[in-house]
Write a sequence for this structure.
């Protein structure tokens, strides 16, 4: 028959192990769902500052139809004979939009855009008046003075869009993966330690060793 203390210890260890296993399962499910719903890319250039800095991780949501004006998108670009690579820009115009500038300020269909996302003092230069063709998007970098964008290579097909930037920040996919691994290890360690304690608590206590001594005899003559 188990001692009450050992049963209590086993119940506590079982509850802790179950809790850690449940937490590990939840983290893994979230990681899988995150991987299925979103894509993570890393910004390779500083052309979208200050909204996005070089090295930032970008969480991309899948494109549902065409991107919207003002969206930050990642799209597949091929420049010259170079390989295809992913670049990030802001959509400032879609099919049918008329774009031009006045005194360094971007206008769309005759309306001046309130580009509060640009760094103070940023102006848009080098943009000739243009009408965006249907099925195309006109993209610009937020750092207009250094960005290589549609002012140089023209509008690009919306079908080249890989996704819309939904969030900018730390590498959530790596954080979730690390959390899943650590929680799983904690569950395993908790279980092993708990079993060792239960085994130790239920081990039979060795019987005490009783020693006896012979009475001393009479002193030698």
């Amino acid at each position: 028959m188990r001692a009450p203390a050992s049963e209590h210890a086993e119940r506590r260890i079982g509850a802790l192990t179950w809790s850690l296993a449940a937490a590990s399962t939840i983290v893994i499910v979230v990681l899988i769902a995150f991987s299925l719903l979103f894509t993570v890319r890393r910004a390779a250039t500083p052309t979208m500052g200050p909204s996005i800095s070089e090295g930032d991780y970008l969480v991309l949501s899948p494109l549902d139809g065409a991107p919207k004006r003002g969206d930050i998108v990642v799209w597949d670009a091929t420049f010259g004979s170079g390989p295809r690579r992913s670049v990030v820009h802001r959509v400032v115009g879609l099919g049918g939009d008329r774009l031009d500038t006045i005194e360094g300020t971007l206008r769309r269909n005759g309306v001046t855009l309130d580009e509060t996302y640009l760094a103070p003092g940023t102006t848009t230069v080098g943009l000739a008046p243009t009408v965006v063709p249907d099925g195309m998007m006109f993209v610009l970098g937020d750092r207009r003075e250094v960005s290589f964008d549609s002012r140089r290579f023209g509008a690009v097909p919306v079908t080249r869009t890989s996704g819309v930037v939904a969030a900018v920040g730390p590498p959530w996919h790596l954080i979730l993966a690390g959390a899943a691994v650590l929680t799983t290890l904690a569950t395993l360690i908790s279980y092993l330690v708990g079993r060792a304690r239960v085994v130790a608590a239920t081990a039979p206590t060795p019987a005490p060793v009783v020693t006896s001594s012979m009475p001393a005899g009479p002193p030698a003559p």
